[in-house]
Write a structure and sequence with these properties.
The protein is mainly β. About 0% of the residues lie in helices and about 50% in strands. The chain has strands at about 5, 10-15, 20-25, 30-40, 45-50, 60, 70-75, 80-85, 90-100, 115, 120-124. Strands 2, 4, 5, 6, 9, 10 and 11 form a seven-stranded mixed beta sheet that branches. Strands 1-3-8-7 form a four-stranded antiparallel beta sheet, with no helix packed on it. Strand 4 (about 30-40) and strand 5 form a beta hairpin. The chain is globular, with a radius of gyration of 13 Å.
């Protein structure tokens, strides 16, 4: 059974940092590119970052570039999202997703699996 379980969300003040983690099971993690997406209330799901299956290529949305960093550990089947200098507009439910193949894509519909999400709330 495929599972993607996110953790690390919470309530923080603007300017703080959080580190999200996604633990994967039920598939061969190292053969999948991984991505992070987010969805705020009343808004469409938004691409955040993606990392290739070997971690050689990463790609970020302009809104988080320079503040967020995606990484993965294929030995532990985990992908992380380090979020620094958080802003109130970063408030959303954050999801990790897995896409079979070497590289990720910025559209969640192109991913094969998705987690349930973890809430991140940034107060001003």
């Amino acid at each position: 059974q495929v599972q993607l379980v996110e953790s690390g969300g919470g309530l923080v003040q603007a300017g703080a940092s959080l580190r999200l983690s996604c633990s994967a099971s039920g598939f061969t993690f190292s053969t999948y590119a991984m991505g992070w997406f987010r969805q705020a209330p009343g808004k469409a799901r938004e691409f955040v970052a993606t990392i290739s299956r070997t971690a050689s290529t990463v790609y970020y949305a302009d809104s988080v570039k320079g503040r967020f960093a995606i990484s993965r550990d294929n030995a532990k089947n985990t992908v992380a999202l380090q979020m620094n200098s958080l802003k109130p507009e970063d408030t959303a439910v954050y999801y990790c997703a897995a896409r079979y193949g070497p590289r990720g894509r910025p559209t969640v519909s192109e991913y094969d699996y998705r987690g349930q999400g973890t809430q991140v709330t940034v107060s001003s």
